Amino acid sequence: MAIATVNPTTGKTEMIIEPHSAAEVDDRIGQAHAAVAKLRESTFEERSSWMRAAADFLEDQAAGVGELITIEMGKPIAQSVAEVHKAVKAMRFYAEHSAHFLADSPLEDPAKVGASVAMSRYEPLGVVLAVMPWNYPIWQVIRFAAPALMAGNSGLLKHASNVPQAAMLLDDLFERGGFPKGSFRTLLIGGAEVARVISDERVAAVTLTGSEPAGRSVAATAGEHLKKAVLELGGSDPFIVLPSGDIRAAAATAVAARINNNGQACIAGKRFIVHTDVYDEFAQEFVRLMSELVVGDPLLPETQVGPVATEQGRNDLIQLVEDARKKGASILLGGSQPEGPGWFYLPTVIADLPDDARLVQEEAFGPVASLYRAVDDDDALRIANQTSFGLASAVWTNDPEQEALFVRELDAGAVFVNGMTVSYQELPFGGIKRSGFGRELAEVGQREFCNLKTIWKA
User: Fold this and answer.
1) Which stretches make up the Aldehyde dehydrogenase domain (predicted)?
2) Which of 112, 127, 162, 263 allows an S-S link to 367, with CB 3.0 to 4.6 Å?
3) Beta bridge partner(s), residue 119
4) Of 72, 83, 266, 403, which residue is the catalytic one?
């Protein structure tokens, strides 16, 4: 199976890379396993220095890496370059804070447990496999790799097959900064080979960001071999607008939330749930702003919406929209693909969705927005919580009681008030229900791949 860069703007193959053989995969796992011993012997100060140097290298290459991202998966160039800088920021964040996040925690009064010394300590697990998606080909990897390596783990990367150049760029990034050979290795393999890597006794844990079926498969294999797993899967995030909120600001933010990354973000606002008292006002402004978006070549600075990353991804969008259309939904904007090359889909707004439409339950991974009318707060919560996903959510209100209600009652890993959902290295990130389990980022995310060891001394 060849692994290829297929430019979604043109549909043309830019590069074909041969996958690693079984022997090459075995060798790379061995390199990562050998690096664990050296990483355990290193200090936080050493790892911090290496991480900062790797961050400097990536920052110096930001323009070129941004262009590579856009060619491989199609996001507007400004967003691609911004993704690189976000990754650099995370690398420096963990270089600065890891020693504090993973510091020994002594019991204040060890005599209570009959000891002279009692404490807990975070220690690395070993080799961690990351199965990563194409939608943020640098950021998604770095937000795993930076905390994992700073904790003293080594990393293996099975990247999405349509971003092989990003995968190979990351293969030696950390060694360029000074990390021991093998601290991070890319595996150019297909999805069918992931289970074999997880089951390898040298691999201690696995993390996946991707689809629900992929998550189920990885979780099953990890469970079979009793290995730690963290899963960040899909989302169909609600964006709730209430009468006390700033409606015009909500509409403008809703557009950004929906079309960022060409609409291909797990935590993007996808279902826009609007109180009936302000529904018409919001819908009119939202549709107007969506209609003004510039769709085109993502390498051009004026482009706001580029192509969907894969042909299959666009086909999935077409099927979701056509299903809604056939079942009586109203297409307020878009609902079609433009003529010409590439995997473009026009910004689309759909309303009046019947309960049996697939869009009500399934994630639309592209520039397709669904509008829902809610009669009151309880109805808005019902609509928001009716899907099987629970990744993130947003609510627009300036009423303190409403805010408290929605923060408490929304079934999600995050609630953003009067803003759009964004991942920050300072805040935990992850979901509930079929959006996965475990957390990335912040302090808790770094500790996911550590052994919390209790130490007791008489």
Assistant:
1) 3-455
2) 263
3) 106, 455
4) 266
The strand pairing partners of 452, in sequence order, are 122
SS3 252: helix
What's the pLDDT score for residue 91? 99
Residue 195 has what pLDDT? 98
- Any catalytic annotation for residue 266? yes
Q: What is the DSSP string of 174-228?
A: HHHHTPPTTSEEE----GGGHHHHHHSTTEEEEEEES-HHHHHHHHHHHHHTT-E
Classify the C-alpha dihedral 197-202-207-213 as positive or negative.
Answer: positive
Dump pLDDT digits (tens) for 302-356: 999 999 999 999 999 999 999 999 999 999 999 999 999 999 999 999 999 999 9
Structural tokens at position 251: 């509409």
Residue 1, pLDDT above cutoff 70: no
Query: Which helix (H) or strand (E) is 253 found in, with range?
Result: helix 247-259
- pLDDT tens-place string over residues 45-66: 999 999 999 999 999 999 999 9
Q: How far is CA 184 from CA 14, 19, 228, 281, in A?
A: 26, 17, 19, 51
* Dist CA 156 CA 167 (whole Å): 11
Pairing of strands 269-275, 237-241: parallel
- Pairwise CA distance, residues 8 & 30, whole Å: 35
User: 438 CB contacts (<8 Å, ≥6 apart)?
Assistant: 207, 229, 230, 231, 232, 430, 448
List every span in the chain annotated with CATH 3.40.309.10: 237-425
User: What's at 49, amino acid-wise?
Assistant: S
Class for the domain spanning 237-425: alpha beta
Least Cα distance to 71 among 166, 190, 168 occurs for 166
- Residue 391 CB neighbours (<10 A): 27
At residue 297, the pLDDT reads: 98
| Main-chain phi, psi angles of 422, to 5 degrees | -145, 150
Q: Is 450 in the active site?
A: no
**Residue ranges matching CATH 3.40.605.10 in the chain:** 3-233+435-457
CATH 3.40.605.10 fits 3-233+435-457, yes or no: yes
